[in-house]
Design goal:
Layout: H1 2-14, H2 21-38, H3 49-61, E1 73-77, H4 85-91, E2 96-101, H5 104-117, E3 122-126, H6 129-135, E4 142-148, H7 153-160, E5 164-175, H8 179-183, H9 186-191, E6 194-206, E7 209-220, H10 232-237
Parallel strand pairs: 1-2, 1-4, 2-3, 4-5
Antiparallel strand pairs: 5-7, 6-7
Bound molecules: S-adenosylmethionine.
S-adenosylmethionine binds at residues 78-81, 83, 100-103, 106, 128-130, 148-150, 159.
Length: 240
């Protein structure tokens, strides 16, 4: 396991993502806790150690390329077992992270990881994204919103874009066949005052299989109209 981890750690260096010894130790602890807790609650379908390292940790670390020095406050909407938010919090100990999820049992797991790893830069929020932004008044509160595997793009943008400041960014992790989702998102982008800046493609190999992925960078060019996000029923019934 250690040897194969080194291979991927070195590969990340070529992307400009450098993990310190301490970060690698923290990821190792995170992986062990994930496997331990996964026996009790459903956190991940991936149980092979090398695959966890690549498909969860390395995958999430690719987001680091799109987060700048100026970005201080980051929210991960629908974080699940901490992807990508907790991995990024390990990589950026000087930035503040909020991990939000509707499922409390996953947050109980995250709390254990945060305590055992001694992370001081992570806050957990329980609730639905489209409700919490109003309840906790988190409109335009973050520099960046990240998200992976939560909803189709038009729905996801309505969940996450209210949280970011004007000129802030949504960093959305998707598979490589994202063009259709982008096509059906033109109205959502317009209505929510968003602009797709770039579609970044990347790939990695694990166990002789290639995985092609994409990261969308979407900028908020103006405030979110206060009628958004709508309630879940409306979002689901009539996506933007
Ligand atoms: N982002 C993680 C990952 O990539 O492994 C988890 C993905 S999992 C498929 C989707 C997660 O999003 C679940 O933990 C679910 O509870 C959460 N979720 C879905 N809709 C949500 C919403 N409207 N507000 C908050 N969390 C939501």
């Amino acid at each position: 396991m250690k040897n194969s981890t080194h291979f991927y750690v070195n590969q990340l260096v070529t992307e400009g993502i450098v993990l310190t010894e301490n970060m690698q130790k923290q990821l190792e602890m995170y992986k062990n806790l994930l496997l331990e807790w996964n026996e009790k609650i459903n956190l991940t379908a991936i149980t092979d150690e090398e695959e966890i390292f690549v498909k969860h940790f390395v995958d999430c670390l690719y987001c680091a390329k799109y987060i700048t020095k100026e970005d201080k406050k980051i929210i991960d909407v629908g974080t699940g077992a901490g992807f990508p938010g907790l991995v990024l919090a390990i990589y950026f100990p000087d930035k503040e992270f909020t991990l939000l999820d509707a499922l409390n049992k996953r947050l109980v797991f995250l709390e254990d990881v945060i305590n055992k790893l001694g992370l001081k830069n992570v806050k957990l929020v329980h609730g639905r994204a489209e409700e919490i932004v109003r309840i906790d008044n988190l409109y335009e509160n973050y520099d960046i919103a990240v998200s992976r595997a939560v909803a189709q793009l038009p729905i996801l943008l309505e969940y996450i874009s209210p949280y970011i400041k004007v000129n802030g960014k949504c960093i959305v992790m998707k598979g490589d066949n994202v063009d259709e989702e982008i096509k059906v998102s033109s109205n959502a982008l317009k209505v929510l005052n968003l602009k797709l800046l770039r579609k970044n493609l990347y790939s990695y190999n694990v166990k002789n299989e290639e995985y092609k992925r994409s990261i969308l960078e979407i900028e908020k060019i103006n405030e979110t109209p206060k009628k958004y996000p709508r309630n879940y029923g409306k979002i689901k019934k009539k996506p933007l």
